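Go through this:
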Amino acid sequence: MGTRAWALLLVLCGTIFLEGIDIAMMAVAIPAVRSDLGLTTGTAAWVVSAYVLGYAGFTLLGGRAADLLGRRRMFLLWLTVFLAFSGLGGFATEGWMLVLARFVTGVAAAFMTPAALSLITTSYEEGPQRDKALLIFAGTGAGGYSLGLVIGGLLTQLDWRWVFFAPVLLAAALLAAALRVVPRQDTPTSRRRGFDLPGAITAAGAMLLAAYTVVRLEHGLHDWPLTVAAGFAALAAAGSFVALERRSPDPLVRLGILRHGPVVRADLGALLFLGAFFGFQFVVTLYLQELRGWSSLQTALALVAMGVDAVLAPTLTPKLVARYGNARVIVGGFVLAVVAYALFLPIGVDWSYAAMFPTLLLAGVAFALAYGPLTIAATNGVDESEQGLAGGLLNTATQFGAAIGISAVTAVYGLASTGSGPEATLSAFRAALVVPVALVLLGTLISSVSVREARRAVRRASQVSSVSASHTSANPAQRSGGIASWK
């Protein structure tokens, strides 16, 4: 890649780094925010959940908007919105201000991230060059999250408001660079056809209701009728969306993309892998802080070992993909994740960090092997005009995966907490840790299908090649005999 191509990749990776660091810093800072502003437990929880709602609710629409309205336009616009509302969150004096700021920041990320991903898939040639760019992109996001835990701990000790102001500085630098290096070559599709507004409204409604249902599970099973009602409303909205898209001459989402097996398997794999990863990290954070009494900074430093993926994703993973193929590397990542999380199941009250380190390191390596190749699989073979949609589907899967993973471990932990004392708490942690293991086991099975499909494709190609070679060798004689007969 030339200098300009590297500059573009640096800017686009900067935005996924910004997203990762923003989420991680907020997770570390929320106890200090709650204490300083006097927030209730429910309000503090909604400060975190508002971002998830905005992101998960609009990422599908955000991905398609990049295709229809222009990738560069959407990227620059929503990077600006992200910058503005992150800064406004730092000036908040009431809980509702923070909830609003985090919701809009999540919506901005829902439009910005798929646009950045589709700019990569349309700016770099499909094959090794694009694969390397996507692997670097995925590794940078993971590195942002890992570093964000440490940086968030340091900034929170200084003043929690810097958790909001620091992303503003990074976003401003990225925006200035993006204006110069992001290409203008993409032509908005909506200039040639209408924009499916009913589809956009029902899609956003269905995603918001589904995200709300998942978030309510995370906050407990009390007031369950409202949770059930939200779930049924999400299903109804999704049904309306499908019906509208089938009848629309210019649908927002071409439903045929959901019949593309590799894309669907990659999205499901990403959902399960991210669900397990974030669910595991959530349980470990509770274990270290609530049971062991570690500070937020000590916990963040302990989890830095999982950030090894930021180094391995752009260096080791491309070599493995080139040698063994995308599908096998994904399965390898899932298998390694199963081993990593299973090693943590017999956790004790007084485990040393040395006992935890192998799991944390293996979890980071597994992330490096699985997540980048899943990103490649979710966008490969998709028409350029639908790259934003493919990115939106992938980001929808990852956001719902993270929410479902955390909600599932929270629910299991709550159900298993039947007593008091360290041993009862430890038993609940062990029960919750079964969830990540189960998720990556299921992901391994789904991803194995892609390995079998890849083998069949190789066999078919080999058979076609053999038939073609036999025909080629037979043709000269046939042509000779034909000529002799004519003579």
Remarks:
- The longest helix spans residues 422-486.
- The CA atoms of residues 276 and 438 lie 8 Å apart.
- Residues 477-487 have pLDDT under 50 and may be disordered.
- The two ends are 58 Å apart (CA to CA).
